[in-house]
Amino acid sequence: MHFADALQAKINATSPVCVGLDPIVSKLPEGVEKSVAGVKDFCIGIIDSTKDIASSVKPQMAYFELLGWEGMKVFWEVCAYAKKQGLIVIADGKRNDIGSTCEAYADAYLFKDSPIDALTVSPYLGSDGINPFIERCEKNEKGIFVLVKTSNASSGELQDLPVGDEAVHEHMAQLVESWAAQKIGPTTNLSFIGAVVGATYPEELKYLRTLMSHVPFLIPGYGAQGGGAEDAKYGFLPDGTGAIVNAARSINYASSKADWRDAAHAAAVAMRDDLQKVR
Known about the structure:
Blueprint: H1 3-13, E1 17-21, H2 36-50, E2 56-59, H3 61-65, H4 68-84, E3 88-95, H5 99-109, E4 118-121, H6 131-140, E5 143-149, H7 156-159, E6 162-163, E7 166-167, H8 168-180, E8 193-197, H9 202-211, E9 217-219, H10 229-232, E10 243-247, H11 249-252, H12 260-278
Parallel strand pairs: 1-2, 1-10, 2-3, 3-4, 4-5, 5-8, 8-9, 9-10
Antiparallel strand pairs: 6-7
């Protein structure tokens, strides 16, 4: 199935909540071994606690890479487990390059039977660094989310620079829409080419939605980064579709005690209800 159609169908069946998986060994809760094995147990616990609420999970690859080859083995096992539970799996690796290197990144994560449904990518190298991912998505029914306006405090140092009458992130949005409009799903009118736009910049989020009408949004910045539902709502299309909202720390570490699974579930429910009020 076309990625955007599969994503929206899952959102319709659950919610636009995307649970980030950010397993920090030193922060693993009570009762979880502070080791590579503990990271796997923790991620599976978060998945099991939220799979009836969330449409998707977003494992942050850096936390697995930090643990060497064993961590990357766990990364793939966690992705496969989440996929088996019916969740949309988005690998947050922000990959990008040109030529054969970009081809290799695309083949590494977006192959036909990969448990990964989508990958975050950086557009800084231009279309040379995006086209191989687009080709794999089209061939293998996968998706990408292109960084457009990120949620971090210093994003404006580059992304807000003026380029003629517009900012860099506005120009980037127009490029993403031009790529996306050619790759529309049969039921959603949305593309398998998505955009990352932070909830921490609601005014920019509101405007960027008008520039990217065929683009599903991945909206980080909810929760621990300071964004809320009132901010994230601007990333949805007028009918309330077309976006997922990510939270990691506020769900992963809702409790450091033995009740961490219940706390994660409760946090996901609260987030779902919060978003439902504004969609």
